[in-house]
């Protein structure tokens, strides 16, 4: 175990059927906040997720929809402040204020198909996510579960 590199490469990864991350990838969030801030982008949110966020905030779902989402490409995305921060991001604590109800896109980061497409995509993702390469290996089963839940 000790000589595996951060991407989890070893013999299993050489099997033609196995994905390159078959032995897991190292990831533990450092809570830097990078993925909730910075350049604007889409964070897809469903009606069910809006309901759940509203429950956690103790606010009507319509209010959450009005103040925290925006229509984008026929879907809904979370709204951002002018500086690109998600409106649910607390800049002081650098925490998500709706953490328990955050959308699937947030819950599954960085285990997205695009990030795990190949080793170089993962390495590129690691440039903006210092949690990649930290902590224990996330096992394949968990990666696949998150891939299945992720909208991306
Ligand atoms: S960028 Fe990575 S390490 Fe930073 S908060 Fe997001 S998931 Fe955690
Ligand atoms: S909902 Fe929370 S986890 Fe998702 S982008 Fe906003 S602050 Fe980050």
Automatic annotation (TrEMBL):
The keyword Transferase applies. GO terms for molecular function: methyltransferase activity. It comes from Stratiformator vulcanicus. It comes from the Bacteria. InterPro entries: Puta_zinc/iron-chelating_dom. Pfam families: CxxCxxCC. Keywords: Cell projection, Cilium, Flagellum, Methyltransferase, Transferase. GO terms for biological process: methylation. This is Flagellin N-methylase.
């Amino acid at each position: 175990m000790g000589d595996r590199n951060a991407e989890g490469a070893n013999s299993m990864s050489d099997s033609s059927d196995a994905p390159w991350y078959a032995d897991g990838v190292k990831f533990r969030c450092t809570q830097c906040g990078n993925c909730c801030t910075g350049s604007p982008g889409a964070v897809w949110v469903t009606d069910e997720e809006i309901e759940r966020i509203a429950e956690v905030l103790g606010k009507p779902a319509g209010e959450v929809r009005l103040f925290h989402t925006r229509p984008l490409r026929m879907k809904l995305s979370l709204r951002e402040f002018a500086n690109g921060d998600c409106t649910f991001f607390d800049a002081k604590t650098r925490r998500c204020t709706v953490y328990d109800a955050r959308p699937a896109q947030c819950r599954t980061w960085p285990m997205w198909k695009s990030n795990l497409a190949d080793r170089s995509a993962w390495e590129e993702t690691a440039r903006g996510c210092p949690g990649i390469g930290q902590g224990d290996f996330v096992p394949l089963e968990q990666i696949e579960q998150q891939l299945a839940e992720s909208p991306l």
